[in-house]
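Postdoc handover notes: sequence design on the structure in folder B. Input tokens:
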């Protein structure tokens, strides 16, 4: 079976003497693992277009045994500038790890692909702060994957907003000041709650278009990260490394 699609390389591993095994988020088939034959040959035209974080048009063969082989790859964007800043590169690698964790297999993944591409573009161009991009990709990717938090209103009384609201990173539920009870909840300003709603519910071309003061942005970054780690029930080595590098 032959597949023509586009995708971004999330992981790469050298296999044998000449070949490379890559993990790709493809638009049409979700996350797949595919071989790039002869990837150590500098004359191979597929070498640069199947490197880590490279976004390419892909021509793939799936063998009768279910093995994917990339026959041709034509680079569309390689995000070279990310490699000029170790902090940006480490955050980009976290995005790739998160995308691998949450994206589907063997089905259309257009929303996931667009999200990581837009995030990497903004990161590489410095168009948004790292914390905004990180929070957006964490919360929006969870929402696309079916884990959108219940943040439309207080889960007890139904009120839309109060000056201070409380969020459970265990259940993804929101509570007003009067209904918080004795649960272990995270206190959030209304501005941070509004930003979370914006990330989850806005059109994809608007999700990065918001501003918060530093205090609210810090709170947003912390709550989306905690919710993500709780929902996925795992730790991310790339996130831990990024946090050793970040100074913002």
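Designed sequence:
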């Amino acid at each position: 079976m032959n597949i023509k699609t586009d995708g971004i390389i999330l992981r790469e591993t050298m296999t044998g003497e000449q070949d490379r095994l890559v993990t790709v988020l493809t638009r049409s088939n979700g996350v797949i693992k595919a071989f790039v034959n002869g990837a150590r040959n500098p004359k191979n035209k597929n070498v640069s277009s199947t490197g880590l974080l490279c976004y390419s048009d892909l021509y793939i063969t799936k063998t009768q045994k279910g093995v994917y082989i990339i026959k041709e790859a034509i680079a569309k964007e390689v995000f070279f500038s990310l490699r000029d800043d170790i902090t940006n590169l480490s955050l980009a690698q976290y995005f790739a790890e998160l995308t691998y964790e949450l994206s589907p297999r063997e089905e259309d993944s257009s929303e996931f692909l667009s999200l990581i591409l837009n995030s990497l573009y903004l990161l590489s161009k410095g168009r948004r702060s790292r914390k905004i991009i990180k929070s957006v990709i964490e919360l929006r990717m969870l929402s696309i994957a079916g884990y959108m938090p219940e943040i439309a209103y207080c889960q007890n009384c139904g009120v839309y907003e109060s000056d201070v609201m409380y969020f459970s990173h265990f259940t993804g539920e929101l509570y007003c000041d009067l209904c918080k009870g004795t649960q272990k909840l995270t206190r959030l300003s209304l501005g941070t709650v509004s930003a979370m709603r914006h990330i989850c519910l806005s059109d994809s071309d608007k999700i990065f278009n918001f501003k918060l003061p530093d205090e609210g942005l810090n709170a947003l970054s912390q709550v989306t990260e905690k919710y993500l780690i709780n929902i996925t029930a795992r730790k991310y080595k790339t996130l831990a490394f990024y946090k050793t590098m970040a100074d913002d």
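Context for whoever picks this up: The beta strands are 2-15, 19-26, 30-36, 55-62, 68-77, 164-167, 174-176, 186-189. Don't rerun without checking with the PI first.
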